[in-house]
Amino acid sequence: MAKNKKINVQGVDIVLYQDNNNDYISLTDIARHKDSENTDDIVKNWMRNRNTIELLGFWETMYNPDFKPVEFDGFRKQAGLNSFVMTPKRWIENTNAIGIVSKAGRYGGTFAHKDIALEFASWISIEFKLYIIKEFQRLKDDENNRLQLEWNLQRTISKINYQIHTDAIKGNLIPQQITKQQVSFVYANEADLLNVALFGITAEEWRENNSDKKGNIRDYATLEQLVVLSNLESINALLIEQGLAQSERLIQLNKVAIAQMKSLTESRAIKKLK
């Protein structure tokens, strides 16, 4: 689960977080726009509404395969009655819902998927909802710009290391007075060596399997793969200097790729960039 983030909307700090690429926004914080002292009651009053129960149920039906529709139908029939009481905890426990989440701790409270949270904001204030959308989009734009900068940085590092890598090939693999065609053949082998070590296929195999895509296999690499590729190029240059045969280098590079990808996919630093 990603680190909590905040947006400030008309003087109200609203916490949000991302889980499995889904954005969740604090209903508790949104409710503070109406009444900062009784946020729980505001959320409960909203959840008593029949329209709200239908919204929650239909959303879960669309996105949650483990949702319990029978329980939802029962709540739907009761919603709107004077005796009907609904809380986030009751909804989650009885229907196995994922669209609303209760969190404890410093930044705890009731959170909801952005689709649901924005509907709650509309119930509070249409104007306030529009300001939330504006600030939320600004946050997303900032995140995308930062990710693009990191992506470009890793590509630059990869290009620099590729130059180091090719220099090592020139000094150790390429005999004197060979043809340009032979030089090209050696480079292609080394590039594919790294492709196989990291991606499991050669560039040609990727093109055959992705004829509808432009560019090459590395253009579609993830941030983690670009970092590992940069490291593999440097390591391969050292292995070439040591005189290791291509088959031996492939085995070692593949081991490094597996270990580093495992490490990076669990890295908090990498996750913060996503």
Structure in words:
It is a single chain. This protein folds into two domains: 5-124, no CATH class; 141-272, no CATH class. 64% of the residues lie in helices and 10% in strands. The protein has helices at residues 27-31, 39-48, 50-63, 69-78, 88-95, 114-124, 126-172, 180-199, 203-209, 223-241, 246-265, 268-272, and strands spanning 5-9, 12-19, 22-26, 100-103, 109-113. Helix 6 (114-124) runs antiparallel to helix 7, helix 7 packs parallel to helix 10 (223-241) and helix 10 runs antiparallel to helix 11 (246-265). The longest helix is centred in the middle third of the chain and has 47 residues, at 126-172. Residues 171-180 have low confidence and may be disordered.
Number of strands: 5
Task: Name the helicity range.
Answer: 55-70%
Shape: elongated
Biggest sheet features: 5 strands, antiparallel
Number of H- or I-type helical stretches: 12
Average pLDDT rating: 82
Global structural class: alpha+beta
Lateral strand order in the biggest sheet: 1-2-3-5-4
Key words describing this protein structure:
274 residues, 10% strand, alpha+beta, 5-stranded antiparallel sheet, 12 helices, 5 strands
Question: What is the secondary structure topology, with strand pairs?
Answer:
Layout: E1 5-9, E2 12-19, E3 22-26, H1 27-31, H2 39-48, H3 50-63, H4 69-78, H5 88-95, E4 100-103, E5 109-113, H6 114-124, H7 126-172, H8 180-199, H9 203-209, H10 223-241, H11 246-265, H12 268-272
Antiparallel strand pairs: 1-2, 2-3, 3-5, 4-5
Helix pairs in contact: 3-4, 6-7, 7-10, 8-11, 10-11
